[in-house]
TrEMBL record:
It comes from Pedobacter duraquae. Residues 514-592 form the AMP-binding enzyme C-terminal domain. It holds the Pfam family ACAS_N. The keyword Nucleotide-binding applies. Residues 66-452 form the AMP-dependent synthetase/ligase domain. Belongs to the ATP-dependent AMP-binding enzyme family. This is Acetate--CoA ligase. NCBIfam families: Ac_CoA_lig_AcsA, PRK00174.1.
Length: 631
């Protein structure tokens, strides 16, 4: 499946556009199917209705596990590096991972889980998390993994939206110097979740936890009661594989749905190609499995290719800012796939931490999650890659399932800040506000995709109409990404950032409306408006303008109360970096908040605010500018 030269890329790309079905059938032939498809693709972007490999039967875990056993059963599948460098790392071979997955799948079955049931997973970055994900897939249960930074309320909303039957969690998680009480958060969440009848709890931090009789069971006890024989459930290509919640323009998170066949082919194909993975190499993706990057490039993509995937429990700066480089040295990492925010944060510690380590094993570097600024790109290139490792700047989304616009390592000439060119099968187009295609080069517009690819989302769980409205209605017959983009004179793509009300904080998507809703829940808050602003490390920070007429004399105290509320309602990841108390918000006569103005204020660019004549009360702007200057 690997493309070896730029010429071959061009030919492959042309084939993928001219004969998409032939192209993808050829790729899909590299996977294990119990029965091949009757039809490669049927689609329309109006409803939308997208089906890949219709009629095919398979189980993704047979591709990720069983098919490697005979020849590569003793190869390492997962290397786990704990938060605490003093603790031993753990290696699971394909044989052992297969056994553990089968065993845990039997635990799920024994506890009443059936094909199609939704399972919530809220776990630390430990091998059992990958085991839990794959065990669901083994028996056809739909996993919904929730990142460990979300609050009880966020979890409850997600569990209720998907009507989950069972939750898999752990007592706690280690994150750097901190401990997170996962089970306690789940206990709080489940007060409002009538559909959950069982909770499986893994022991990890050994913090005391409450175990409710009849509901809560220990992972370690359960696996003793079952054996390791668990035939894989036969799935249709279009059966649901997982739901993953992500933020959008409105307050309510969206349950993005991916299906088995297309997702597998897409995650596997993009992994093998873009990173130029060679068997035996160690692939280190620093994301958490709670995000799409972890789903596709820690679990499914690498394992489908028989790769060795490294799972790291901790954070880049613990116990010191050389942790990533120590891990690279210790496990002879060949590919390091991380986020610009991590690079910027590590850059701020200077070159000592990185120069002290042996990074000679590195062959390919990757970036994901947000635009990478040139300074970070060069630092990554020079200090980490020593000028010899291609950097693949991979643009994609939860909704796309896998990489979309990205260099292919050793094939596509790279350019700092550019995701470069579309991968085979991906047909990007730039449109103006009216939806007219913008042709030619040296142009910019809104990024859309005009033809389906196997990894694309199929629906939003329980709300197909919202899926249509969000992605397929802005521009008829196109998938709208929500990103702005430019195409330079060479035809290279550079993603410039979201054009909707989503902000990207440390590579995490956060909806401004979600944060506003959370702030507004705090007693005393009349109204709020949230915008993003440039932040040196996080990429974007969260700036909240809050109307709070009678706040505490000590404004700092009220600010902390608001932060606490946001942490309760969404989770610590959504805490505003700045809160400005104002007496009014700039609104149009029809009552819409003019965020454009607030964005300028947040950026500190108040000299040229543009036209404010449509405002109901233009004087609030002066007041806000004054308040911002004093803050
Ligand atoms: C994979 C992932 C998706 C949003 C996306 C865009 C931003 C991701 C990027 C990038 C510039 C890149 N984004 N990769 N922007 N260059 N290489 O991050 O998924 O969490 O759904 O976020 O992230 O704005 O629309 P997700």
């Amino acid at each position: 499946m690997q493309i070896k030269s730029f010429e071959e890329y061009e030919q492959t790309y042309a084939l993928s556009v001219e004969q998409p079905e032939t192209f993808w059938a050829g790729i899909a032939d590299n996977f294990l199917w119990r029965k091949k498809w009757d039809k490669v693709l049927s689609w329309n972007f109006t409803e939308p209705n997208i089906k890949w490999f219709e009629g095919a039967k398979l189980n993704i875990t047979e591709n990720c596990l069983d098919r490697h056993l005979e020849e590569h059963g003793d190869d390492p599948a997962i290397i786990w590096e704990p938060n605490d460098p003093e603790r031993d790392s753990i290696t699971l071979t394909y044989k052992i991972l297969h056994e553990q997955v089968c065993r845990f799948a039997n635990v799920l079955k024994k506890n009443g889980v059936q094909k199609g049931d939704r399972i919530c997973i809220y776990m630390p970055m430990v091998p059992e998390l990958a085991v839990a994900v794959l065990a669901c897939a083994r028996i056809g249960a739909v996993h919904s993994v929730i990142f460990g930074g979300f609050s009880a309320k966020s979890i409850a909303d997600r569990i209720n939206d998907a009507q989950c039957k069972l939750v898999i969690t752990a007592d706690g998680a280690f994150r750097g110097a901190k401990q997170i009480q996962l089970k306690e958060v789940i206990d709080d969440a489940l007060i409002g979740c009538p559909t959950v009848s069982k909770v499986v709890v893994l022991t990890h931090t050994r913090t005391p936890v409450s175990m409710l009789k009849g509901r809560d069971i220990w992972w370690e006890d359960e696996i003793k009661l079952v054996d390791t024989h668990c035939p894989a459930e036969e799935m249709d290509a279009e059966d649901m594989l997982f739901i993953l919640y992500t933020s959008g323009s409105t307050g309510k998170p969206k349950g993005v749905v991916h299906t088995v066949g297309g997702y597998m082919v897409y995650a596997g194909y993009t992994f093998a190609n873009v990173f130029n993975y060679k068997r035996g190499e160690v692939f280190f993706c620093t994301a958490d499995i709670g995000w799409i990057t972890g789903h596709s490039y820690i679990v499914y993509g690498p394992l489908s290719q028989g790769a060795t995937t490294l799972m790291f429990e901790g954070v880049p700066t613990y116990p010191t800012p050389s942790r990533f480089w120590e891990i690279t040295t210790k496990h002879k990492v060949n590919t390091l796939y991380t986020a610009p925010t991590a690079i910027r944060s590590l850059m701020s510690f200077g070159t000592d931490p990185v120069r002290g380590q042996d990074l000679s094993s590195l062959r390919v570097l990757g970036s994901v999650g947000e635009p990478i600024n040139e300074e970070a790109w060069h630092w990554f290139d020079e200090e980490v890659g020593h000028g010899k490792c291609p950097i693949v700047d991979t643009w994609w989304q939860t909704e796309t399932g896998g990489l979309m616009i990205s260099p292919i390592a050793f094939v596509t000439p790279t350019k700092p800040g550019y995701a470069t060119l579309p991968l085979p099968g991906v047909q990007p187009i730039l449109v103006d506000e009216q939806g007219q295609e913008i042709n030619g080069n040296d142009v910019s517009g809104n990024l859309c995709i005009k033809f389906p690819w196997p990894g694309m989302l199929r629906t939003l769980y329980g709300d197909h109409d919202r899926c249509r409205q969000t992605y397929f209605s802005a521009y008829p017959e196109l998938y709208f990404t929500g990103d702005g983009c430019l195409r330079d004179a060479d035809g290279y793509y550079r993603i410039t950032g979201r054009v909707d009300d989503v902000i990207n904080v440390s590579g995490h998507r956060i909806g401004t409306a979600e944060v506003e809703n959370a702030i507004n829940m705090h007693a005393g808050v009349v109204e709020s408006a949230v915008v993003g602003y440039p932040h040196d490390v996080k990429g974007q920070g969260i700036y909240a303008f809050v109307i709070f007429p009678n706040h505490h004399e000590d404004a700092e105290l009220t600010r902390k109360d608001i932060l606490q509320t946001v942490t309760r309602v969404i989770g610590a990841i959504a805490k505003p970096d700045k809160i400005l108390f104002v007496s009014g918000l700039p609104k149009t006569r029809s009552g819409k908040i003019m965020r454009r103005i607030l964005r300028k204020v947040a950026e500190g660019e108040t000299a040229n605010l543009g036209d404010v004549s449509t405002l109901l009360d233009p004087t609030v702007v002066d007041e806000i500018i004054d308040a911002a200057k004093q803050a």
